[in-house]
Amino acid sequence: MNRTRASENLGPTGAGGDSAGAVPTAVDERRAAGGETGFRSYVGDFTRKLRSGELGSLPGIICVVVLWTVFQSLHQQFLSPRNLSNLSVDIVGTGMIALGIAFVLLLGEVDLSVASVSGLTAAVFAVLNVHNDLPEWLAIVAAMLVGAAIGAVQGFFSARIGIPAFVVTLAGLLAWNGLMLYILGSSGTINLHEQGLIHALTSYYFHDAAVAYGLAALSVAAFFLASYRDARRRRAAGVRSRPLSVIAVRTGAVALVAFAAAYILNRFQGLPLALLIFLAFVVGLDFVLRRTFYGRKIFSIGGGAEAARRAGISVVWLRISAFMVSGTLAAVGGLFLASRVAAVGQTSGSSILLINAVAAAVIGGVSLFGGRGTTWSVLLGILVIQSIASGMVLLGIPTPMQSVITGGVLLAAVALDSLSHLSQKAHGRA
């Protein structure tokens, strides 16, 4: 029996959190016939993972439920269609930046410059488009290239020269913010064209109810087919797979959330374009991280850079590319934030934006120690952060208190991440 348990715990843990035993002897009989074990056994394994510190996105889910319950009890308009629709748009700008930070955090590094990069790239776009009449799409491409270039420079100094990423990006935080102020000039603010593409990013809605419901149905079908295909592939390979009952329960949960969201959004103005784009980024980047060689290498470096290097992975290039992703998504996020207020000003790329973006990733379940987390973790985290802000506004609580509460939630998330990491080390999972 002890040998059986040892074989269950020796498998490596991947991005999705599933483990596959590497010891061919003393295989548990329940895992015969393709490795499927039934719903009860799957729940038991999930419980054991929680006890060993593999919390995943569970804290983020609990936090969202608690916050929404509390704020709704204090103000009846919090869960109104109007407020939730506004919330779905408000999460996009900071959420995009947090998606980029997640790539760096998965390496066990941190990028403190993303807020300044978002402000600088938005300023570059505004100057090129508004002041120099460059076509909007070219100005967008230029802004994103600037973000990618900044990420490449910072990644080079960190990965190749060996300067700690904390120091490099802290210097970037100061330098890029100063450059943004210089580009904006004496006026300090540039108003965007009201009829332009960037302005439409956060102001356009799909008013036809069929769009939101169609997207919900498509998402549920895609989730079920992907889960079923993955289970068949794993079963054919002789490794453990999720039973059909678990897939059905998970699909039902996704359907409940998707159609409830579609119903609420349709009760206001319909599906926001900004939310649709953000979800596309979340899904696409999740595929990159969990279904491509590039993504698996990112996770492997976060799990152990030296081991990854010995396995032949180009650690330097992967680190630089992660900072480039972070810089590019910071530029995208900066454009969405500029779209929300239809302007770029001296307050763009503020320190509170950096705190919120990092907090979103960590609160959602992306580990500061590297190697754990998904883009869906970021979605949960930014829902927590923006829910706090929205609830505070409805309750009339001063802005400084929002920072106090957000800081407390971030500290709690980091403490939980540290305890989880220690627990996993104690159980031989980290």
Structural summary, described in words:
The chain is mainly α and 430 residues long. The chain has two domains: 57-204 and 289-426, ABC transporter involved in vitamin B12 uptake, BtuC; 208-268. It is built from 17 helices and four strands. The protein has helices spanning 2-9, 39-51, 58-74, 81-106, 114-131, 136-159, 165-184, 197-201, 209-236, 244-266, 273-291, 293-303, 305-310, 315-341, 351-364, 375-395, 399-426; strands at residues 189-191, 205-206, 271-272, 343-345. Strands 1-4 form a two-stranded antiparallel ribbon. A two-stranded antiparallel ribbon has the order 2-3. The protein starts with a helix and ends with a helix. Residues 1-36 have low confidence and may be disordered.
| Helix amount | over 70%
The fold-level CATH name of the largest domain is ABC transporter involved in vitamin B12 uptake, BtuC
What value does the Rg take, in angstroms? 22 Å
Average of pLDDT: 85
- CATH 2nd-level architecture of the largest domain: Orthogonal Bundle
Topology, number of strands: 4
- Provide the domain count: 2
Number of helices: 17
Tell me about the largest β-sheet. Answer: 2 strands, antiparallel
Strand order of the largest sheet: 1-4
